[in-house]
Amino acid sequence: MGIAADIAIIVVAGLIGGLIAQRLKQPLLLGYILAGVMVGPFTIGPTVSDVHEVELLAEIGVALLLFALGLEFSLKELQPVRKIALIGTPFQILLTMVLGYGIGQLLGWDWFSSLWFGGLIALSSTMVTLKTLMSQGRLGTLSSRVMIGMLIVQDLAVVPLMIILPELNEPGAGLSVLGAAAVKAVIFLVLMVAVGTRLLPRLVAYVVRWNSRELFLVAVTAVGLGVGYATYLFGLSFAFGAFVAGIVFSESDYGHQALSDIIPLRDVFGLLFFVSVGMLLDPRFVIENWLMVLLVVLLVSAGKAVIFGTLSHLFGYGNIVPFAVGLTLFQAGEFSFVLARVGVSTNSIGEELYALILSVAVMTMLLTPFVSGLAAPVYAWRKRRFQQEPLQTINLPQAGLRDHIVIAGGGRVGQYVARVLQRLGLGFVLLELDHRRIEQAKEAGLPIIYGDASQEVVLEAAQVGSARLLLVTTPAIETTATIVTQVRRLHPELHIVARADSVEMLQTLHEHGVQEVVQPEFEASLEMTRQALLYFDILPTEIQKFTDSIRQQLYAPLYEEHNN
Question: What span, in angstroms and rounded, lies between the C-alpha atoms of 391 and 380?
Fold first, then answer.
């Protein structure tokens, strides 16, 4: 059957590996890589017969990955953290490459392999980081925005790395070779901006007139792969052209629909790519060199954590942010695999380096959820150092705070509540870490303290010991639990109302000492039910009784236990 049988083996193995990864709450790409190891030439069992044919299909996967990355690129996401993202990330990549070069020299490699290793570990994993932040309920925090901003720039950096590193493998490579590659890239970018931004949208607009989703998908795919082939003929990488095409296309009116349609195709070919990555990994290498692999994992993890944390601190982010960023972005990323495949295909890196980077990347990815969860405990352990930091207080009453409401979290929910309390003339204070939200509260005249609500010094500044009520608006259960624990030490009897991001969190929050819990999605569903029932011949009082009974079914068990 040839290539058809190979694709069948890969897809089935990828499905099994993906299910295992999903079951273990790991990113799917780790399951795909595991599947590749199982069907590769170094293990027993079903084996792909023609690895070269699979690698050709995997190249399409790389192109589609970068095409989709270009479509997703948005300067708006970088705006809030543009300084650390646009300036700090290049320094992070450079420093990490120096770290990797040092590790390579320590292991006795030549300068070229050491430099490649530095480039391979410089990138972190967007997929693993986002999955970790989502599972921990930390999306939307200041630290998560810093991470996402830096990850976006990192993902963009894979393109120049794909151009520069292979050029160093050329005999007599130097500034002239790199300069020639850079000139080619600039010329192509200028042509794409001058011609592509006008031609490509018109081409797709013509296809759209036929009202065919199938033709639209074909047109979008043709744009991505066609421009990729053009860059290949131009002497640049196929994937670079696909990436540029994605960026150009994202500025058109059809960018969002193109991304929506291309994602399933990207995911299927992405499966082929990540399985092909695993096929080249020899498990015997990890077993025979386990001590070296473990040492490199520790050096890479610790080194990257220090680099990210230090840069975050130098760019003005204090409190827990440097710890959260450093202990979450320490891993190698999915684009490290892309870069590694480029290195293999250009004979720039050998089997040993390839096996090592795959081993390091997979192990650091697996460690991410556990290490990331250490940010709060590590910060708490070091909090004495931060107690000396001056707290910024804005719009606080000169007479001080007493019998007031403390709102932990100055996001949308916190500021909505604050504005209502302000209109009613009730005393309150907001606690927030995000600079943008601080400025918004300042302009609105809201009393606010810049600081981490989970830290004792910040709670004391908010005079929580004399407060009447605490409102915790963050959706992250770990953060809420830490805040409640600290508050109970200062004010054991304080009444606490907290937000639960899911129904499953209700009991957990109650066990941590929260008297009342609000579940936003549940409350929204009740309000939508009420609005719908108003269109029928049902009295408003009956509707209110009905929604109250539904609400009681969810919350009553918690209140009964509390009263008992």
Answer: 17
Distances (CA, A) of 103 to 97, 115, 335, 414: 10, 10, 20, 47
Distance of CA 426 to the CA centre of its chain: 39
Neighbours of 253 (CB within 10 A): 10
Neighbours of 56 (CB within 10 A): 12
Architecture of the domain defined by 52-266+283-380:
Up-down Bundle (1.20)
CA distance 210 to 346: 42
CA-based R_g, the chain, Å = 27
Cα separations (Å) of 536 from 503, 531, 540, 541, 548?
Answer: 29, 10, 10, 13, 18
Closest CA to 137 of 487, 457, 537, 502: 502
Q: Are 333 and 154 in contact (CB under 8 A)?
A: yes
- Closest among 355, 223, 335 to 273, alpha carbons compared: 335
Tokens coding 391: 């707290």
The HSE-up count of residue 84 (CA atoms within 13 Å, CB side) is 27
pLDDT at position 498: 92
* Those residues with Cβ within 8 angstroms of residue 25's Cβ, 6 or more apart along the chain or in another chain: 135, 369
Helix and strand numbers, DSSP H then E, in the chain: 28, 7
pTM: 0.69
Q: Between 504 and 258, name the one with better pLDDT.
A: 258
pLDDT in tens, 391-449: 556 667 656 678 899 999 888 888 999 999 999 989 999 998 777 788 888 888 889 88
Distance CA 363, CA 366 (A): 5
Residue 470 forms beta bridges with which residues?
Answer: 406, 496
The pLDDT, as a whole number, for residue 563 is: 52
Point out which residues pair with 393 in neighbouring strands: 449
What's the CATH number of domain 388-518, 1.10.1740.10, 3.40.50.150, 3.40.50.720, 3.30.360.10? 3.40.50.720
Q: Residues 370, 376, 378, CA angle at the centre, nearest 5°?
A: 85
Query: How open is the CA angle 372-373-374, to the nearest 5 degrees?
Result: 90
Tell me the CA end-to-end span of the chain in Å, nearest whole number: 70
Contacts of 9 (CB under 8 A, 6+ apart): 39, 46, 47, 48
Query: Positive or negative CA dihedral for 257, 263, 269, 270?
Result: positive
Q: What is the pLDDT of residue 390?
A: 47
Mean pLDDT of 473-502: 85
The Cα angle at residue 386 between residues 320 and 381, in degrees rounded to 5 = 70
Q: Where are the domains of the chain?
A: 52-266+283-380, 388-518
3 state SS for 512-525: CCCCEEECHHHHHH
